[in-house]
Design a protein that fits this description.
2 domains; two-stranded parallel ribbon; mainly alpha
């Protein structure tokens, strides 16, 4: 059954976020990993949809025409086509970024879609599985086969030599002495990508790599001096974020005020400001 169209406040139950800050953080992580899947025009459409989804964090029921009009005005007549916007919607849905609900008017005719942004999936370490104890048997061959099968089913841990080429070798060579498996090393570099994208310095590869290495060394010093670090990767991300924020502020143009919050224009015409840098 389709949803009934109405004011955006009536769709709060479809929001997966507690605040605009949390919503923006998840969008940054989605873009850090999936930005390359979209064309330049499609990214323009996606970012505009994000800006229209802040009154109820992560939810938007604006008409496509309204969104395209806002884009066209921002780019002084050089907006994107309806087909480009629709391609973006389909890609975002397939990638898991969006969930789309159809809405209808009171008379049963179709109205604008409801777009609900999804949370970025957090990777959790696999929980240890309890292996069933083999039943007693007089057949020694059968028992040995069962043991061999269980050994064959055990997951193979890949070492640092299997890390993706996208991770700089300098970072791999440092992290491998403390976390040798490929997956863990890639997860730490994933945090670097997210933080670099957040502070608009993902193109400054040398600076970002240097800061990532400094941050990891600081994490190791903390781990060696205390046992109070519950989640090392989260602690690493905190150090990294502070350092990249400093880099971001240092590189701001003199005529740009870093304290100026982002400006969001809602589909109702209402203007909302959100200072993500200082929140």
């Amino acid at each position: 059954m389709n949803l009934k169209s109405g004011r955006i406040e009536g769709f709060e139950r479809y929001s997966q976020f507690k605040s605009v800050k949390e919503f923006n953080t998840h969008i940054e992580m989605w873009l850090a990993m999936k930005k390359q899947e979209f064309s330049k025009g499609e990214l323009v459409g996606l970012k505009r949809l994000v800006r229209f989804s802040v009154k109820v964090p992560g939810v938007c029921n604006a008409k496509i025409g309204t969104l395209l009009k806002a884009i066209n005005e921002e780019y002084q007549g050089n907006g994107i086509s309806r087909s480009t916007f629709k391609r973006m919607i389909l890609k975002a849905k397939e990638l898991g970024i969006l969930t789309i609900y159809e809405t209808e008017r009171k008379n049963g005719s179709q109205s604008s879609n409801l777009y609900s942004f999804n949370r970025f999936p957090q990777s959790e370490p696999p929980k240890p599985k309890k292996l069933d104890q083999p039943k007693e048997t007089n057949n020694l061959l059968k028992t040995n086969n069962q043991k061999n099968n269980k050994r064959n089913e055990a997951p193979i841990e890949l070492d640092h030599t299997f890390v993706s080429d996208k991770v700089p070798q300098a970072f791999v060579q440092l992290v491998k002495y403390f976390f040798s498996d490929a997956k863990t090393i890639e997860e730490y570099w994933h945090m670097v990508q997210i933080s670099a994208f957040r502070f608009e310095c993902d193109q400054n590869t040398e600076d970002v790599l240097s800061i990532a290495i400094q941050s990891f060394k600081q994490l190791i010093r903390k781990l060696k001096s205390t046992k109070q670090v519950v989640k090392p990767i989260a602690f690493f991300y905190g150090i990294l974020t502070n350092k990249l924020k400093e880099l971001y502020l240092e590189q701001l143009p003199k005529n740009r005020n870093e304290s100026t919050p982002l400006r969001y224009v809602l589909e109702t015409g209402e203007v909302m400001y959100y200072d993500w840098l200082h929140a």
